[in-house]
Amino acid sequence: MNPTRRRVLAAVGGAAATLATAACSGTLPKVRLAAGTGRARGTVRFWYRAGTQQSVAAMIAAFHRAQDRIRVQATPVVDGQYVTKLATTIRSGHVPDLVDMDDINSTLFVYRDAFADLTEAVAALPYRRRLSPGHLRLGTRDGRHYAVPFFADNSALACNTELFRRAGLDLDASTRDFAGLLHAARAISRLGDDVHGWYLPGNGAGALAFTVLPQVWASGGRLIRGAVGSQHADVAHNEGLRATLTLLSTMWRERLMPRTCFSDDGSRWTGEFLAGRIGMLPCSYGNIVVDADPAFLRTVRYVLLPGQHGGHSFFDGGDNFAIPNGAQNPDAAWEFVRFCLDVARQQTLPQSNYLPVRADALTDRYRRRYPLTVPPLADISAGYAPPCLAYNLIFNQANAPWLTMLRRAVFGGDVAGAMAEGQRGYDTLLRQAQL
Question: Is 154-315+388-433 CATH 3.40.190.10?
């Protein structure tokens, strides 16, 4: 199985990332785009996350076939080293012309004045209002855009329709709220000793943030509030969080999840589901399709993760493009960006296990070809990811307060104590990151 993207995120050194970007500043020459002239040429030095190679290679090959004025020189960077390496090259003054980075890390660089202001160029895109607002939010400061979406890697709830059928369940009714999820998990778990209603990678910090946070958001909870730079935690008395942790704790206590959830760091995330033994699995499209048998995929249906009393949300994961200040060929870089955002290019992304970031990619033909990717695109505004300077510190580290809180609540049954401890941990890391 390919390494999950959330495990890759968990490898990012949160403390190192924050410290490395602390030295980024506005000392590099500001970039001013003359975008849209069609006269750009030369070489674009492009850094991308090594884990996205399949998508990037396909885009570059198509771009080179489409024109002969611009060549893209691509450099892969190991995902877990990306933030530190990019910060280091910015400090050195020798920057690439374009970067593709995990969208959750965009905020770190935007708030260190490392990226070019793309606001006018973004505003000129005729499909601007169709772009993923969650991705854009992570690259926006004071109403100005410093990054734009490239592709999406969104969380959703994969459901085994055959197990739902055998349990006598209506899938839509069962996935509208927490009561429905719990009822469905109980019914599916009664099908046999080796069958369970729910699964989560209980020792994978980043994977759990990717899949559990949307249930909190859909329940009306935000764990981090306020403007970036002056944020505070809302954990100890967060009712959406309390309801989500209580649901998962109940599922664990009633053995509606396999015992392997306790130690899974994400390396076994999809195995039980792909074997047909799990009814519901929060994950991404890419998590499933990489290893799934095509016949099994026909029994899978994706829905958005619901909240306690309804509603739904998903984690707006994926990648953003940005042009560093000091770039030597920004206009050619922006031409490549616009090519990648073309709707025809975006509609090819599921071939490399990612999703489009344009809502208008969801044509009837696209729906028929990639039905499992439809839910996030059909309600693209339901996606969210928290802009935060301390995201990696809080959510992705093995000793992060997020993972400590979740394990104490879900596996230990101490929801209130876990939330109080989480509040203290969040507050400490937010203060440190915002000094």
Answer: yes
